[in-house]
Amino acid sequence: MKRIAARFILYFILISIGYAYLYPLLYMFTTSFMTVEDLVNPTVSWIPSKMTLENFKKSWNVLEASKTLLNSVYLSAIPSILQTLVTALIAYGLSRFKFPLKRLWLFLILATFLIPTQVTIVTKYMLFSRLGIIGNPLVSFLPALTGQGIRSSIFILLYYNFFNMLPKAFDEAAELDGANSFQIFYRIFLPLSIPAIITTFIFSLVWYWNETLLTGMLLGNEIKTLPIALRDFAAKFALMFPAADGSAANRINEGIRMAATIITILPLLITYLVLQRQFVESLERTGITGE
């Protein structure tokens, strides 16, 4: 009886937590297919009486998704890949080599994570302006390539702790076989750090995808991403679909907003579904439990 009661409590807690996380997604999904009539009908709450794709068509056009989606993919995927590899290399050096003031460097790396982005955004803009790359994708690629990408410090520390768990015997055996430090890194450490790589890549991809402050300031109107287009969605919708004679037909409504939101987050959801198994396993092996 105690086991049944304990299991019931456990399932109740898990279902409650799951519902809290899934409710916003379910609400967005069902609302995005509703017509204006369903939205104003109090008897329709979850299941639309008549499903429509008109909300998605309008949202796709307003977001200019054919262009902004491509921009989002390469402005998030490329820096994420660079950041995943570079932070691993930096962590390998911190883990396996001895040099003066090593603890100070680790402290400074942690300090960069604690400093808010808003504090350094002006100096970043001035630096990139002097380099003449404002409005160029290099403003995202260069920091990732030098280990200064979005929240790179937490990935360096993740790799650092992971590499410290690997025995030094691996290095010694490889050195006896004539391997140099870089060969040890990419032939031994990288294959063994697949869990850390997957964790780093997914978190990095999400953070780069959702970044609007730095992207909007450093790229301006030269390159627009989906999240930035979503930020300006209401104003652009009013310009593209002006309401005529007070009619509600072309006015923005909840269904259109939810459709635009789904278009924006759908690539991330697909990525997670594809890598779900590897991601969960990597979290268990690297010790990450969430933000």
TrEMBL record:
Where is it located? Answer: Cell membrane
What InterPro entries does the record point to?
MetI-like, MetI-like_sf
What GO terms in the biological process aspect are recorded for it? transmembrane transport
Stored Pfam families: BPD_transp_1 (PF00528)
What residue stretches are annotated with the ABC transmembrane type-1 domain? 69-275
Look up and give the membrane topology term: Multi-pass membrane protein
Q: Which UniProt keywords apply?
A: Cell membrane, Membrane, Transmembrane, Transmembrane helix, Transport
User: What domain of life does the native source organism fall in?
Assistant: Bacteria
| Any Gene Ontology CC annotation | plasma membrane
PROSITE patterns on file: ABC_TM1 (PS50928)
Can the keyword Nucleotide-binding be found in this entry's annotation? no
Q: Indicate whether Transcription appears among the record's keywords.
A: no
**What are the TM regions of this chain, as residue ranges?**
9-29, 73-92, 104-128, 140-163, 184-209, 256-275
The record's similarity note reads: Belongs to the binding-protein-dependent transport system permease family.
Name it.
ABC transporter permease
Species this chain originates from: Kosmotoga arenicorallina S304
* Organism classification: Bacteria, Thermotogati, Thermotogota, Thermotogae, Kosmotogales
